[in-house]
Specification:
heterodimer, A: alpha+beta, two-stranded antiparallel ribbon, B: Naphthalene 1,2-dioxygenase Alpha Subunit, Chain A, domain 1, nine-stranded antiparallel beta sheet, four-stranded antiparallel beta sheet
């Protein structure tokens, strides 16, 4: 994603782009349905229900956790913490399912809260643009680690009428600082 | 400098085939390491491409100490301590930027990017500007670079950088030779991946050819990666002690046996025609093919620079049981097609969410907890002692999965720690 676009989206999250009337529906997707989708996504990730979580993705999926957001946000030229296309999401899930992904064996104890959900409009792709915040507590033998950030989802109504996500971008508040391993599905 | 710490009995803690677990956990030993290793010898700090233009700066570190790497307007690179000469405040709070001067936010003292104090506000309080001359930012007294890699040493004198690098300089040459103009760049920014483990766990692991098949079995199996076989029992690759604490896993015997140009990177020449043409133009077709078969080094430069083919790691100890790995993708100057692939592969493999490094870090942390158990007291480094041999250049090598690398690291460590 080009820098300018990423900045604009970050600005949208910040609320620095003006307040419009709240959207309750984008295309056929209602705010409530969007909320229920992202809550379900969070629950499946927290519970390590890998196949069900993977099934939430469209075929052209992009799962992105940028790093150093202030300075370098173009994943074609800058390091990201995670930048998975559909094939790499599949590899990630397969790795977790081997039971030998040591960083998730035993799996982290996880519970996350998703909040501040807003439906912002329609993306160029035609998908609904949903933003929110998250706080996640991760328990490992090391101790309890807190994760927090802003999240963007692009949601799409598939021909079979199910709702899927084509994009998920997680902007960690501390993505420019030293982080412990992030081996769960954030 | 007065010796404040009692020297530990290293001859009893570091044996030929084992080292004592307390070397990873004892805070006094860690303090001594800072003094004798990190604040004395040559340490990798950054790459010249990170301060490409005059007045560029980037925040770096030597061990726990914050350093600013600057390029002054004449083009010279400086390593300055990020500490105001007045009250010790950080003078630079941005991770990078371009500026000829740093103004301390606390009381407005301003320093040139050479470290020189330019001025303090309300100077009558100091009886004028005369005292300016004796005050400056702290400087790393010796700064030198090789192939763009910038190193610093806090010792006013001692071995030169060339002497420190020794045989490992050739590994940097090998890396740079894969770049058509012979230059690498570190322009992708860094991930910082921390773990609760002693820094030496990481240094030892980087050229431990025994662990990949176990720690990384999960990703090798699902990604159908050939990397695991390079570190198998039947591999013709070798582990090499390059001396001076530098070690490598030399995978060239396997790559030459397979004979596939760019096979080391898991790709083939038809996927990256632009790069191949550039490399052939630079070296001729035969030499380019040879370079593309041999691939990039897998080398650990003592004490903190690890080059894993296309990834570059800087190991930073921040406490006896806490270490930060700074990691970025190697980029070859002017090779966009290959650079993007190297970046993608790096993002997938390393950093907090990496298919490889999250598992390595899990091992580091479990290892750190493991050595809290006091029996047995020892950590073994004996693997392959019976099959050490000299290579054609006189370096000691052993099989791909052997711990000759760790033995080399600990021999050098003891020498540094026992030095006056």
């Amino acid at each position: 994603m080009p820098n300018a676009e990423a900045r604009e989206e970050a600005a949208v999250i910040d609320g620095s782009i003006g307040l419009a009337a709240p959207l309750l529906e984008v295309g056929s997707i209602s705010l409530t349905e969007a909320e229920q989708f992202v809550y379900a996504e969070a629950r499946l990730a927290d519970q390590h229900r890998y196949d069900e979580w993977e099934a939430l993705w469209t075929d052209d999926a992009l799962y992105w956790v940028p790093a150093n957001a202030e300075f370098e946000t173009d994943p074609d030229t800058a390091m990201s913490i995670l930048y998975d296309n559909r094939s790499r999401i599949s590899t990630r899930i397969k790795q977790l399912k081997t039971g030998k992904r040591h960083a998730q064996n035993p799996p982290s104890g996880l519970r996350r809260s998703i909040s501040n959900i807003e439906l912002l409009g329609t993306l160029e792709s035609g998908d609904a643009h949903v933003v929110g915040n998250f706080i996640c507590f991760e328990s490992r033998q090391r101790g309890l680690t807190q994760w927090a950030g802003g999240v963007e989802w692009a949601l799409r109504r598939e021909p079979d009428s199910s709702l899927r996500m084509s994009r998920k971008t997680v902007r960690l508040v501390d993505n420019d600082r030293p982080l412990y391993s992030l081996s769960f599905l954030v | 400098m007065p010796q404040t710490l009692t020297n530990p009995p290293l001859e009893k803690l570091i044996l030929a085939d084992r080292v004592h677990g307390s070397l990873y956990t004892d805070p006094d030993i860690y303090a001594l390491e800072l003094e004798k290793i990190w604040y004395r010898g040559w340490v990798f700090v950054g790459h010249e491409s990170e301060v490409a233009k005059p007045n560029d700066y980037v925040v770096k570190s030597i061990g726990p100490q914050p350093i600013i790497m600057t390029r002054d307007k004449q083009g010279e690179v400086h390593l300055l301590l990020n500490r105001c000469a007045h009250r010790g405040n950080l003078v630079c709070d941005a991770p990078r930027g371009n500026s000829s001067a740093f103004r301390c936010p606390y009381h407005g003292w301003t320093f040139a990017n050479t470290g020189k104090l330019l001025g303090y506000p309300f100077n009558s309080g100091y009886g004028g500007t005369e005292r300016k001359k004796e005050l400056s930012l702290g400087r790393v007294p010796r700064v030198d670079s090789y192939r763009g890699f910038v190193f610093g040493s806090f010792a006013e004198d001692g071995p030169t950088l060339a002497e420190h690098l020794g045989a490992a300089a050739e590994a940097l040459d090998r890396l740079c030779s894969l770049s058509p103009p012979g230059e690498i760049e570190l322009t992708a920014g860094w991930l910082q991946h921390k773990c609760k483990a002693n820094w030496k766990m990481l240094v030892e692991n980087e050229t431990d050819g025994y662990h990949p098949q176990f720690v990384h079995a999960s990703i090798f199996s699902v990604a159908k990666s050939g990397i695991g076989d390079l570190y198998g029992d039947g591999s013709t690759a070798v582990a090499r002690d390059l001396g001076d604490g530098h070690t490598e896993n030399d995978l060239r015997p396997e790559f030459r046996r397979i004979g596939a140009p760019m096979g080391w990177f898991g790709t083939s020449t038809d996927k990256i025609p632009e790069y191949v043409a550039q490399l052939e133009a630079a070296h001729g077709a035969d030499k380019a093919t040879e370079l593309m078969i041999d691939g990039s080094p897998h080398v650990m430069l003592w004490p903190n620079l690890f080059i894993a083919e296309i990834q570059l790691f800087v190991i930073q100890p921040t406490a006896v049981d806490q270490t930060i790995q700074h990691v970025t993708a190697v980029q070859f100057k002017g090779s966009p097609d290959l650079n993007q692939r190297m970046l993608r592969q790096t993002i997938g493999s390393v950093g907090p969410a990496g298919f490889l490094l999250a598992d390595d870090s899990e091992m580091y942390e479990r290892n750190q907890r493991g050595v809290q158990a006091l029996n047995p007291e020892w950590v073994l480094i004996a693997r392959g002692m019976h099959r050490e041999r000299a290579d054609e250049n006189g370096f000691m090598i052993a099989d791909a999965t052997d711990e000759i690398t760790m033995r080399g690291i600990w021999r050098h460590y003891r020498k540094l720690m026992e030095a006056e």
